[in-house]
Design brief:
mainly beta; iron-sulfur; three-stranded antiparallel sheet; Putative oxidoreductase; nitrite reductase [NAD(P)H] activity; 39% strand; Rieske Iron-sulfur Protein; 136 residues
Length: 136
């Protein structure tokens, strides 16, 4: 049996600055939205598992080279751990990860799934992320 994912319209893509994170309330959870330079958007938990504070949208968006691949990251503003925005996994402690949500960009609107990826908890479990870049 297939279950369709319910999405919530969060904002216009133009309201998210490239390479900056922004906080949003989606499906009863705080998320940090990250828009990259290619207009892909990722959603990760706002909750920093290392400090216990809801601060990830105040983090630094950047990248790191992991196994020869450039990985888009969000760095915690508290203790500076970097997380892969695609998977939520902490680069320095892979046992820790931010929950992630599927994101779609349709007709210039950013829509985020009301629930995180299956198996993700809102504290620190590993999951995979999905980003969709608007065509056009």
């Amino acid at each position: 049996m297939s279950v369709e994912t319910a999405y919530e319209d969060v904002c216009a893509l133009t309201e998210l600055l490239p390479e900056r994170a922004a906080a949003a309330w989606v499906g009863g959870a705080q998320v940090a939205l990250v828009r990259l330079l290619d207009d892909s958007v990722y959603a990760v938990a706002q909750h920093d598992p290392f400090s216990g504070a809801n601060v990830m949208s105040r983090g630094i968006v950047g990248s790191a080279i992991v196994d020869g691949e450039q990985v888009p990251t969000l760095q915690s503003p508290m203790y500076k751990q970097a997380f892969d925005v695609r998977t939520g996994v902490c680069l320095t402690d892979p046992a820790v990860a931010l929950a992630t949500w599927p994101v779609q960009v349709c007709e210039g609107r950013v829509c985020v799934a009301r629930a995180p990826h299956a198996g993700a908890s809102l504290d620190a479990s590993t999951s995979s992320a999905t980003a969709v870049t608007e065509a056009g």
